[in-house]
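writing this on my phone so excuse typos. first protein, seq and then structure
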Amino acid sequence: MLQAIGLTSARHRGLPPAVDDLTFEAGTGCVTALLGAPGSGKTAALRLMLELEPGRGITYFRGRALHRVPDPAREVGVLLGDVPGHPVRTARGQLRMLCAAAGVPASRADELLDTVGLAGLGDQRIASLSLGMDRRLALACALLGDPHTLILDEPTEGLAAREADWLHGVLRSHAARGGAVLYTTSDPKEAARSAGHVVSIDGGRLVADQDAADFARTRLRPRVAVRTPHAARLAALVSREARAARRSVEVVTEASSSRLSVYGSSCAEIGDTAFRHGLPVHQLADEVGDTAPLVDHTVPGGGTPATGADETGAHGPGAAPQPAVRAAGPDLPPPIKRRPARGPLRPVRYELRRLFGVRTTTLIVAVALVASAGLSVLLARNGRTPLPNVLAAWPSLLPLPPAALCAGLLGALSFGDEFRYPALAAGRGTVPRRVGLLLAKLAVSAAVALLLALLAVLASAASLRLVYGGDLIRIPPNVMSLVVSWSGLTVGCAWAGLLAAGVFRVTAAGVAAVLAVPVLMVPLVQRMPKAPTARSVTGLPGRLRDLAWLQWPHEADRWVLGAMQVVAHPVGAALTVSLSVLICAYLFTSLRGRVRW
């Protein structure tokens, strides 16, 4: 059961709250419709329930607030808008990535594709899906954790009648299995047809809380839609004959002067009246009209709803009173704090599926390898470029070698795509203040950068052997230092792009941070005043071994010295300074946003 108590949204610039002291229930085993005109506060109410917006009130999901539910994906399934997925990702890839976020097996993706009727379209790109297919995929995302409660915002908006009927059938099936369903709509006839309980709101306040039968009886009335060029004369004739026969007939003239809505009569009676007086009739049809003035809903055939409600309307005595559930005592309801998005339960698996689920990663790696192979051949042609620069494909004209630039781009996309295509939480961008998610991204980006660095060197060596023969390639004596510096450069660029994109929430900021290392930071480091005499760090590995709890092997001394040489190099020093600044900025934003695991 879902219980919303005293929901009140925060005021903005002195305006009235979008939701004002809203209290209602959505029972287990029932489909509940939250009905209201556009702008009545339906979406704001859902966001307050899901703790996506600040305000006051509380919502209980089977007796627990959402922030006290240990695994929200298994308790609440949400559909807010369309699928927030990368457009080139496949439907199956999107679901499998979200399976890692929800902590469910990847096989659940294929089960849900079959459930929502997309079994044969799992390899289709999200961008190629129609609106109906996209809505089916969004429903599959909401059902991933097999939740007890479903919350959906305008799920049938823009859908054809057949797709809407199918979706409502799925919702009724979920409720029949013991779940609770709450969805919003602005169509009273849809609410009466598909829901078992209807909650009507206007201006963010509760208007009526009824079951479907009472709602249809008090809110919807049969009427006859008439279109004639002599609407005023026909209205007068119908009213006069009804008074003469002592029948209760209401005639409402619509906004269009040629249209009438007649309540309490039939098509035959209206047609006979028009025939007896020689009035032409262009339309004569039975309809179901909405008697409540609060919903601005256009009925089929044009025109606007009848104005004014009779004594059985939604505002009359037939409307159910507002539920008596209230916050205890005269105090205000508890505050609703906007809580950060939850990170994936299996972050490493999630990050791997996010990275390799799109063609962008493969394209970037291919560009890096081709550029490295081509540049190495050109650099080796004059014979004056050192072999390490040739293998790294790093000419003096470029700020960074292709492998380092592409590693930085992949790192920037790691967090940039989280904000551009927020797949972790519906209706909001992912907040990168989760330690588990950050560590997973750092580990995966470092592994990809090291693999890219190795493949770039191998591609350069293979191209040199093919073009110039094997005599050109020799193993230098300081190979260990070169390996450490090359690995540190690529991993550092990847982490710089990742952290900058996480701080500024855009991919371009990550790319700019990578390019700023050689363009801005290296000249800055080179211009720093140097000491007249340089002190030696000889013996540093031994002194570190004495301070450490664990004794590492003597072979590791070469790695420590290689790392020190990398930091001493201008590019290494600039990269170290940049990473230090980005880490401090990240920690500052994390502490302000209450970092969580």
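second protein below, same order as before
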Amino acid sequence: MESQITIFITLAATSGVLSVFLGLYAFLKRKSVPSASLFVLYNAALAIYIFGYAFELASDTLAEIKRWIVVEYVGMPFSVVLGLLLVMRYTGRTVARKAAAAMFVIPAITLAMVATNDFHHLFYQSIYLRESSPKPLVDIVVGEWFIVHGAYTFGCLLAGFVLLLRRWKQTKKTYRLQLAVLILSQIVPILAAFLYLMGVTPQGMDPVPVVLCLTSAMYIWAIVTSRMLTIVPIAKDSIFESMKEGVIVLDAAGRIVDFNRALGEMLPAFGSRVIGKTLDEAWIGMTGTAFPAVRSLDGAEEELQWTNGGRAATYLVRSSTVTSKRGDSLGTLLMLIDVTEQKRLEDRLRQLAYYDGLTQLLNRTQFLLRGKKMLEEAQSSGSPFSLVLFDIDHFKRINDTYGHETGDRALVFAVSAIRRLLSPDMLFARYGGEEFAICLPRTGIEAAAALADRLRIALSSEPLETQNARVRITASFGVAQIADGADTLESLLRDADAALYESKRNGRNAVSLRAETV
């Protein structure tokens, strides 16, 4: 019998040493081992439990045995919960801090019950030395809380086993060795505890600390052969839920099968009730119209506008076909990528590239590009086409007298006064400095001159009000018209510019047609 006890002590001590080794390994490799701190705590708890058990077997008195049993329960009930948390991390399941803390309540109560058992006998109704044993061993009569503790421990181990077993089919062959080791680490203690409760172990001794030597050895073997702990598979559902892009999964009939958390945040109205509906049905329920983006073509991309919490958002909808291993179409995956900021930047850059920042009119470059196109259309259709140039009179004097801020206000004021009299088909641009240009399609020179004179009167009839003064703003206008198909926008600009300077020579605040004053 003593030889059996010695073997048990030796194997238990070996298990403890291996647990310490695994904990130190995880600590030293903590930068490359996922959940390293959890694995260190798990092995520390196991080591305390195992060494406590070894010292219990080596004890000579009942008092010593009781003390070491308390030490065992410092580690054992907590190791089971830590093991379950490791399994949950491995399978990609997240546990809130409060929920994780709640999982340790029963182990904490168990430790308190064991430490104070002599006062209430709720864990052990009695604990006594075995009479016929030449070496001090104890027998126990279990109490009410022992049953609670046992059920909780068994439940944690079984839950870990089920979670890992359910992951088997989804795990690639590369990672199945790791998974098998984890499964055995859950099932071996269950079987050992079952044999102990059935009373078929040598001398009725608890074999769990001893068989942990086997599970620790398997851990070490798996670490050496497959780099277990440092290379851990990431669960597909974890990837799906952690994606920043919104994802909608449709079956072959276009029905919604699933969507991720990011999609729910993008489209809060897209709740669980849409599962099983077609995408169009769900979208009609949300907006009154069918889903606006293309989704039937693999690789198709289209933009979708949406308002989320009062914020206008733009999403790029990208469609991908989901196929089986044989290449059969199983459905469609729609990815919604938030491109709101990108679109805003593009719009801002387009604004800077096309428009004048102060007046919001087209800039010179865009005026020349669009003006040439308008002129070509007029020449091809044989319709009249005129161009007006005007310049703010004495603009430098305004800047020098009232300051550049008032000068800027004068330009904006002039543009506002002019724009009210122009129709949408007229091309209005800031040509440079205080000079502006207007293209007038289907307009002869007489009508263009009449319009220019109305613009002149409108501008000069109402002064700009400032804090210190009322500033009267006038402008000089030059008007030109195409004469034949050989005219270009550049030649029209030269003619209008010549007429503009004729207006200035004639005292400003005037309209001139080429070289004639009106």
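The longest strand covers residues 311-323. thats all i got for now
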